[in-house]
# Entry
Amino acid sequence: MSEDTQNEGLNPAEQLRMLADKIQLETQIVTRLKSEVAKVIVGQEKMMERLLIALLADGHILLEGVPGLAKTLAVKTLSRAVDADFSRIQFTPDLLPADVTGTLIYQQKTESFQVKKGPVFANFVLADEINRAPAKVQSALLEAMQERQVTIGDESMQLPNPFLVLATQNPIEQEGTYPLPEAQVDRFMLKVVLDYPSPDEERKIIRSQIRKEGEQEVSTVLKPTDILRMRDLVREVYLDEKIEQYIVDIVYATREPAKYRLPELAPLISFGCSPRAGINLAKAAKAYAFIQNRAFVIPEDIRVLAKDVMCHRLGLSYEAEAENITASDVVSKILNRVEVP
# Structure
């Protein structure tokens, strides 16, 4: 008799308790993973937490921040702690789509074309400074990110599982950069805007860089099979119908703010969040609850993640830009107005 068949006779409370026990065992591995990454990365707890959420919720993540905030280092460190294939693509203005996805190479001996796979065929793909590549290259990632497959010539090939794109971009440089199109930005589950470390954290960073010789050794604590197993548990995390409605209300308030007693937001929004916002907010909230060692989602989980999921999907009008109102300001007003279940 399978475990699922045995659990069918249990009431919902017992099922939730059993799920909580399973989650408690798995979160011990997550704690070890955090400890390994902390050997190299000082501070930036929010960034590391969001990286784990993307990993567990099967989503992609975009990290935005000025140079030197350990964006690339964090991704490389995480990949070393997970026994999975890792590739880094340094995006530049002269990059071609074939440099990302791969191409067909003519073999003279066999007189036939052979597929040479590009760096996108890996479990972790670090797209470094993604906004430096032209639209043609950025669009080459769209199929990979959404469909988890790549088409080279007339052949479509599945990407490895798990597959995660971790992209970084620099918001202050304008020369030689290309803004990401809305269709591609929408493919990222989370966009995390990073801030400078605190004075205490900066002191620790300086001290560690002065004293240590070479990079800290990071032990491997996770395998791809562990990630897939934890993802199955994340999907089982309980999401109440009232919280589902709360997510719908928050997302819908970006489209028709007047219905939520926010008429002042209407002239500030050029277009509201897409349906992917609600889907990804629910998935991310389940992963966040899992990391917090809970078998159910609470409203606070939604509030914690709403900006990271919604801000990059929200289009602001010229009026909002003229008044220096950001997407974060708009989402904050919505969160303060929409009734919490």
